[in-house]
Amino acid sequence: MGDVMLDTYWWGKTDRISPEAPVPVVAFEKKEYRIGGAGNVALNLVALGSAVSMHTVGGDDDDGRLLCTMMEEKGIDTAGVMPNIARITTNKIRIMSRSQQMMRLDKEMSTDINTDLEEHFVQQTITCWEKLKPRIVIFEDYNKGVLTTRVIADLIAWCKAQNVLTAVDPKRRNFFAYRKVDIFKPNLKEAREALNLVELEPGLNGMQQVHRQLLHQLGHRISLVTLSEHGAFYQVGEDAAILPAHVRNIADVSGAGDTVIAVASLVYASTRNARLMAEIANIAGGLVCEEVGTAAIDANKLLAECQALLGGG
Predict the structure, then answer these.
(1) Domain 41-89+110-310 belongs to what topology?
(2) Contact by Cβ (8 Å): 275, 241
(3) Tens of pLDDT, residues 222-234
(4) Positions marked catalytic
(5) Contacts of 297-300 spanning 24+ positions with Cβ under 8 A
(6) Containing H/E element for 213?
(7) CB atoms within 10 A of CB 258
(8) What are the pLDDT digits (tens) for 204-261?
(9) Looking at residue 74, what DSSP letter applies?
(10) Cα(121)–Cα(117) distance, rounded to whole angstroms?
C-alpha cells in the first residue's frame, strides 16, 4: 500500500539543439506507460508468483483509470484503490533519447489526504484485509500524501493485532512514523539524513550504529539498508552483515528500491530467514538496474543468479 504513480516515457531521436534555447530537440517516436511507485512493488510481487492487492488513494482522472486498468491486466487486485475527485494521480513523464533521460516532468499532489478521507481509507483497507487475510503488508511511501501518520499508525496496529508481517520503504517526511514494523528498508542516503549521520561511511561498524539508532526510535525487528555500489546491510538482533554488490552493467537505477522491498518481503514472509532475505533482495536490486526505466524482476533470471551466486537448489 502507498503511493501509486504512472510512469510515462516519451521516446525519440536527438540530433540537434533548439534554435530557441540551449536544449536538445527530441523528435517524438513513441509513448509508453508503466506502473510506478507502490504499483511497481506490486508488479515485482506478481512477477514472483504472489497474490497481490493494492491499497491507495488516487485521482478520479484519466491517469488513475489507466493505472487501474494496467494493474488489473497484470493480475493486481484493485478493490482497495480509492479514487478521489480532490486528488490527482501522480504522473512522471520522462523524455528519453538513446536510452538516456533528457528531461522529467512531474504532475502530482503531495499534500496529505484530509481527516475524513483518512478515516474512510483506513476503514476500507481494514475491511479488505479482513477478507484477504494478508501474510505481509508493504508500506511504499513516496511522500505523496496517502500514507499519513494516522494511516500508518492505525494500519500497523491492525497488522500487529492480527500477526501480519509489515515492511516499509520509507521517505523522509514520515521516516520515524513506522514504529514496530518487521522490516525497515531505507537506502543509505535516507538513513544518513534522518539520523544526521551525513559523514557516515558504509562499513559494518557504522551501519550497526545506524541500526542501533533506528532501533531506539522505531523498535522494529530488521534493518535492511541498501548501499548502492557497496551492496546491502542487514541486522536482526546481533546478526549483522554487509553483503557486497555484484558486478553489473548499470543502465538505470529507477525502481531498484521497489524491487528490493518486494523481494525482501516475499522471501522473509516465506522463510523468516533475514540473511537469505537480504542476499536475494541484494541480487534482485542489481538485476533490475540492467534495465532502462522501472521494470519488474524476471523470476527465471533471479533464480539463475541466486543459484550461481549463492549456490543450492
Answers:
(1) UDP-N-acetylmuramoyl-L-alanine:D-glutamate ligase (3.40.1190)
(2) yes
(3) 999 999 888 899 9
(4) 258
(5) 297/44, 297/47, 297/48, 297/259, 297/262, 297/263, 298/47, 299/47, 299/48, 299/49
(6) helix 204-218
(7) 28
(8) 999 999 999 999 999 999 999 999 888 899 999 999 999 988 765 544 455 688 999 9
(9) T
(10) 6
